[in-house]
Each structure stands twice: as C-alpha cells, then as structure tokens.
Amino acid sequence: MTAFFALATSLLWGLADFGGGVLTRRLPALTVVVVSQAVAAVVLGAIVVATGGWSEAGPRLWFALAAGLVGPVALICFYKALALGPMGVVSPLGTLGVAVPVGVGLFLGERPGLVQVAGIAVAVTGVVLAGGPQLRGAPVQRRAIVLSLVAALGFGTVFALIAEASATVTGLFLALFVQRVVNVAVGGAALYVSVRRGTPALPDTGFPWRSLPALAFVGLADVAANGTYAVAAQHGPVTVAAVLASLYPVVTALAARGFLRERLRTLQATGAGLALVGTLLLATG
C-alpha cells in the first residue's frame, strides 16, 4: 500500500509541477499559487463539510498550519525556477528535499533493510540524473538552481509535517483544508505586497479565464498528492514513502518531453531507468 500511494504521489506532483511551470511562463508565480490553491481550498472545504471533518480538529492541525506557511514559499521558488530553466533540469533538484523526511524517519527509529537502502540510493541518483544535470551556464540558470534548492528544503519540510497532520481520513481532509487556507493567506499577502511594489498580478489582457481549468488542475493535483503521501507515510516506513514520492521529477521531465518537445539526453534516459530500478528495489525490499 505504501508503494502504491507514494507512486501515485509522484505522478500527481509531477503533473502539477509541469502545469505550474507552464502557467508561470504566462502568469506571475504568485498568481498561479494563489488561484490554484484557492480552488483546492474551496473543493476541500466542501469535502470537510460533507464528511463532518470538523470533528477531527485537534493539536495535530498545528502541523498542517506549519505546512501551510512553508508550502507557498517552496511553490513560488519552484515555479519561478521552472519558468527560468528547462523543466527537465530544474525539477530533479527539488528532490533533494527528500533528505528532510528521510532524516526524520531515521531519527524516529526507522531502519530500512539493505535492499531498501540500495533502492533509496539508486532511485535518488536516477532522479538527479534524469535532469541532465546542467550546472553550468548563464546567471539565469544559476538563479534557477538556487531557487530549486530553496524549494527542495521547503518541500521536504512539508513532507515531514503533513505526515503528522492527521491520523484518520476525515482528519486528513481537514488538515489539507487548513493547509490550503494558510497557503492562500500567505500567498495572497505576498501577492498584495508585490502589487503594491508595482509588479502586476495579471497580464495586460486581464484574468486568463481560459487558463482557469489548468489552474484548478494544478491546485487539485497538488492537494491530492499531499493526501496520497500522508496515507503512504502512515501505512509504511517514511523513508520508503518519501523516496518513492520524490520520483515526481521523472514525470515532469517526461511531460515536458511529450508536450513541450524538450529532448531527453542519454544521461536523462539513464536516470529515468535507474529511478525505475530503485523503485522496484524499494517496493520489493
């Protein structure tokens, strides 16, 4: 069960990152974050009301609130990085944040077996190689790398926090709702400050209503990924769940190849293959 939900997380996050990166090339990153997360908050709010999730309110929601504070910063940095550099290069750097939940799992006493350790090493190496990697070039590329590393730390922190935010399914809906509300509040405040400083929140043509379905997809895929990751972490070792969930850059790179015709180099294809081998080792270990 852990492997299934963790791999579902990587698929959802990979597609959400691809969509967010494409949208950020047409809209400010803050606008993409606020609108997409607002849509997710509305949908989650309806689910919480329908399932009676309010009854699950408790101290664990502080973890959701903290994740909501960190998440927008990570998303904004990551979307800006995706807009600056090739998605197949930037996205794998975000997986370095897997060190945070893996470290938490080890601290809490998890001890993966030899096969799983090998799977972790192979999978992480494969994901990094799947991005190129291209660490040389113009200043814009170096800025994208810095933004990606900041995002990685934020994503890893959210990984660790959301895994502790609930113990039941209805509690998970409430936790994700709280996280999204905080996301919108933090992102909205940042957008307001940005506008006051003279940065437009929308293009000259106004709100791109044609992009609303894509914005909704990004927000809903992101929240669904958080949910599947929480389930994966609750039903198995966090070290395994976190590594499998971190395979999302391979999905982003493949989506960029399929939709944007970004070419995969031999090194990237090799990395994708190693990520698959690592996944099999983790799933069978």
Automatic annotation (TrEMBL):
<feature type="transmembrane region" description="Helical">
    <location>
        <begin position="169"/>
        <end position="193"/>
    </location>
</feature>
<feature type="transmembrane region" description="Helical">
    <location>
        <begin position="113"/>
        <end position="132"/>
    </location>
</feature>
<keyword id="KW-0812">Transmembrane</keyword>
<feature type="transmembrane region" description="Helical">
    <location>
        <begin position="238"/>
        <end position="260"/>
    </location>
</feature>
<feature type="domain" description="EamA">
    <location>
        <begin position="3"/>
        <end position="130"/>
    </location>
</feature>
<feature type="transmembrane region" description="Helical">
    <location>
        <begin position="28"/>
        <end position="49"/>
    </location>
</feature>
<comment type="similarity">
    <text>Belongs to the EamA transporter family.</text>
</comment>
<feature type="transmembrane region" description="Helical">
    <location>
        <begin position="144"/>
        <end position="163"/>
    </location>
</feature>
<keyword id="KW-0472">Membrane</keyword>
<feature type="transmembrane region" description="Helical">
    <location>
        <begin position="61"/>
        <end position="82"/>
    </location>
</feature>
<feature type="transmembrane region" description="Helical">
    <location>
        <begin position="214"/>
        <end position="232"/>
    </location>
</feature>
<keyword id="KW-1133">Transmembrane helix</keyword>
<dbReference type="GO" id="GO:0016020">
    <property type="term" value="C:membrane"/>
</dbReference>
<dbReference type="InterPro" id="IPR000620">
    <property type="entry name" value="EamA_dom"/>
</dbReference>
<feature type="domain" description="EamA">
    <location>
        <begin position="143"/>
        <end position="283"/>
    </location>
</feature>
<dbReference type="Pfam" id="PF00892">
    <property type="entry name" value="EamA"/>
</dbReference>
<protein>
    <recommendedName>
        <fullName>EamA domain-containing protein</fullName>
    </recommendedName>
</protein>
<dbReference type="InterPro" id="IPR037185">
    <property type="entry name" value="EmrE-like"/>
</dbReference>
